Amino acid sequence: MSNLSAMPSGQPILEVDKLSKVYRSGERQVTALRELSFTLAAGATCAITGPSGSGKTTLLGLCAGLDTPSSGRVLIDGNDLGALDEDGRAKVRNKLVGFVFQNYQLIPTLTALENVMVPLELQGAGSAQQLATELLDKVGLAERRTHYPLQLSGGEQQRVALARAFINSPKILFADEPTGNLDEDTSHGIVELLFNLNRASGTTLVIVTHNMELAARTERIISLRNGALVER
After folding, report:
1. Is the pLDDT of residue 6 over 60?
2. Cβ atoms within 10 A of the Cβ of 2, count?
3. Is there a contact between 129 and 109 (Cβ–Cβ < 8 Å)?
4. Sorting pLDDT into bands at 50, 70 and 90, what band is 231?
5. Distances from the Cα of 180 to the Cα of 101, 104, 183, angstroms
6. How does pLDDT run across 119-170, given as a tens digit for each residue?
7. How far is CA 56 from CA 60, 148, 164, in A?
8. Ordered DSSP codes for the chain
9. CA 219 → CA 56, 131, 192, distances in Å?
10. DSSP secondary structure string, 152-173?
11. How far is CA 160 from the centre of its chain?
12. What is the pLDDT of residues 201-213, one digit of tens each?
């Protein structure tokens, strides 16, 4: 793979161009997404909403390079994901992208501190432990850094996941139902942390959510129905 390219200042961090995804289900073809096109500027906040089965998570996976489209293109910071092989897409993700998932996706055999360190260690960075310690302090878990995921509450696990998502200073962060497994009070704290960390780092934030109160916190809402864009 060639070196990652960089977009000129002011250009979109995310470009989605006529993106479609079709699955085969037995003898049937199921169209999950239909020729979606939109762009996001660097530093923007955006929510992707819609009913179950509308294509939200499919769209997030394609935008993040976790899946490949049937047609159309996705560019992250000028890098055309469709022109890259899996190793190339992984390199873009490791360098430019952060993730927060509904079910936390922590490694159970690693401590909170070690989980946060993982993205930087994959890059071979030498300052992983110091940065991870600082981020755990920012999310209020300095005293829990040696605990394993099973020793942490759901809210604490999601705080660890937030710290991990920001440790490699991603240019864009994708959050898939980040409060879906949390109660209302815990959800509120996680949302505040997410937006505060995002504001401090200047990261572009894309949130898939059913929660319209959370969606309303973003600058832009992209609504999907039956795989098509119905509202901007």
Report:
1. no
2. 8
3. no
4. low
5. 9, 10, 8
6. 888 777 777 899 999 999 999 999 999 999 999 999 999 999 999 999 989 9
7. 6, 31, 23
8. -PPPP-PPTTSEEEEEEEEEEEEEETTEEEEEEEEEEEEEETT-EEEEE-STTSSHHHHHHHHTTSS--SEEEEEETTEEGGGS-HHHHHHHHHHHEEEEETT----TTS-HHHHHHHHHHHTT-S-HHHHHHHHHHHTT-GGGTT--GGGS-HHHHHHHHHHHHHTT--SEEEEESTTTTS-HHHHHHHHHHHHHHHHHHT-EEEEE-S-HHHHTTSSEEEEEETTEEEE-
9. 18, 29, 15
10. S-HHHHHHHHHHHHHTT--SEE
11. 15
12. 999 999 999 888 8
Q: For residue 201, which amino acid is it?
A: S
All domains of the chain in start order, with CATH: 12-231 (3.40.50.300)
Place of tokens 């993730």: 99
- Which amino acid is it at 140? G
Read off the tokens for 228. 């098509």
